[in-house]
Amino acid sequence: MKTFLDNHAQNILGTLTCFDRIIFKGYLPITHERGLNALFYHQDWLVKDFKVHAETLSGRIADHAKALAHSQCRPFLILEGHHDKEQLVQKVLQGQPVQEGLIAVLQTLEPCRSFKVVPGPKRPLLKVATRKCRFFYFYYLDREFGLMHVRIQSWMPFPIQVYINGHSWLARKMDRHGMGYHRIDNAFAHIEDLPRAQRFASHLAHKNWPRILESFARRINPLMNTVLSGDRYYWVCDQCELALDILFRDRASLACLYKQLLEHATRCFGAEDVLTFFGRKLHGNLQAEVLTDYKVRIQGARIKHRLGGNWIKMYDKAGILLRIETVINQPRCFKVLRRGRRKGRWVLGYFPMAKRVTNLPHYFELGKAACQRYVQALANVEDPRQAYQQVHRLTRPCTRQGRSVRGLNPLRADDALLFEAVCKGEHLIQGFRNRDIVRRMYPNPPGSKPICRQRSRKVTRLLRMLWTHGLIAKIPRSRRWRVTAEGRRLMSSTMVLRHVDIPAQLTAIPA
Fold it and tell me: Does residue 392 have a pLDDT over 80?
């Protein structure tokens, strides 16, 4: 990422890494059949009367929602069909402004996961079932988090969803500290003290989220003080967006670059690259689907790379900042250092990350690393005219430490294949070895050991040639190589020259 910022330092004001949308979900013990049966046992209720008790409790939640809106003189709106709730709340704010507190309560009818009574061998049983019920959305202008909402399902088992926006929280934080900024929607076009704002944004993941979320739950669920007084919600992070914003000095600077960034990401980022951004490797047991999606919207163009249920997006906000955004829906794709069971023993090691809310710092670090790898892969994208002026240096013979090698020809098929092999995104993290390049340049099996050794020796000579030209460098105390910053810029420029600027009829001519 530093290389990208250095290449465009004259046009960039700075960067900000911050949570964007975070969706928390809370589940009570009665979410499971065992917990619900325990509740019925302690309350001395009959399982066959499940529907009667569920309707009674649902009515108490509905009455509480109406009473809360009435006591604070805020609208209680019953919605039918599809509505844009955010726009509706904004209209309420314009007509009935509020500085802090409840904005409105919205009631909708949506599908939900609940239970039903089924015959059992000795007595009726409760089984999971899908039905429709009332949901209540409580929209707040919170003192700490800004515009947010809490949603509760009015039918058993009463799960709760809490939605916050990290940029809204950061704006409130900077307001309390008297920092100046210019905000456009959920992005900052200018911040007075950017390093201080970054320190604020990094603290959001380390808040006491179980306590904060539990306070929201007790505010909207009246059953927590009566029937469910002995229970607490178990909180998970259902969806998390981590945004890396690169602030440009003006719209013209980003407009010239953004088109090339989109073109490079669309043409050059394959499945291996997407896996590398997420810190993964391509292997035979990989079950997740890798997709790249390019879409033109009203606001502009964006590109999205999917790995299963997680993805990385790139788009521009208001034409003045470039946003790289990592969205994590399936955290088990990532491994983190924690205690876990292995071979029947509790050990400290790397295990798949769970959704529990205490893992939010891991969400931040994983999302940040993915965004930085993505920006690093874009480091070579710049005004191609400057790079083309330097490409001619590669075509001349070069001498280094007494070794003389031939010049490189970007139109030569073998040289172009070599450039593509060493510039693969999968080599960004750990570099590449001789056999990695052999596998790329010779996809067919060698058939015999002499041919295998012959290929390896040839690739060794080619890597020495790239090293002599300064395009790659040896990783100390290893047999791996890495592409230098200048090498990535020059080789990527030659690949663009070959695949984009020169007609395909010429590049198809064999070497």
Answer: no
pLDDT score recorded for residue 198: 94
> Which contacts (CB < 8 Å, 24+ apart) does range 113-122 have?
113/159, 114/54, 114/155, 114/156, 114/157, 115/33, 115/36, 115/50, 115/156, 115/157, 116/50, 117/47, 117/48, 117/50, 117/51
Tokens of 446: 């060698």
Domain ranges (residues) in the chain:
384-507
d(CA 504, CA 501): 9
3-class SS of residue 123: coil
Residues 311-319: contacts with CB under 8 Å, at least 24 apart: 312/274, 312/277, 312/278, 312/370, 312/371, 312/374, 314/261, 314/262, 314/265, 314/374, 316/254, 316/258, 317/184, 317/185, 317/187, 317/245, 318/184, 318/185, 318/187, 318/189, 319/251, 319/254, 319/255
Which tokens sit at 103? 């904005």
Tell me the helices (H) and strands (E) count for the chain, helix number first.
16, 19
**Is the domain covering 384-507 a CATH 1.10.10 domain?**
yes
303, 293 Cβ separation under 8 angstroms? yes
Q: Which of 370-384, 386-400, 475-489 has the lowest mean pLDDT?
A: 386-400
Radius of gyration from C-alpha coordinates of the chain: 29
What is the average pLDDT across 217-238?
91
Question: Which residue carries 């059992």 as its tokens?
Answer: 120
Q: Give the count of alpha carbons within 13 A of 23, CB side only.
A: 10
CB within 8 Å of 471: residues ≥ 6 apart: 422, 483, 484, 486, 487, 490, 491
CB 218 within 8 A of CB 224: yes
b vs e for 372-411, b when ≥16 Cβ sit within 10 Å of the residue's Cβ? Answer: bbbbbbbbbbbebeebbeebeebeeebeeeeeebeebebe
Instruction: Report the C-alpha gap between 460 and 405 in whole angstroms.
Output: 13
User: Mean pLDDT in the chain?
Assistant: 87
Predicted confidence at residue 169, as pLDDT, reads 95
CA–CA separation, 156 and 53 (whole Å) = 9
Q: What torsion, rounded to 10 degrees, do the Cα atoms 490, 496, 502, 503 define?
A: 150
pTM, rounded to two decimals: 0.75
**Exposed (0-12), middle (13-18) or buried (19+): which is 88, by Cβ within 10 Å?**
middle
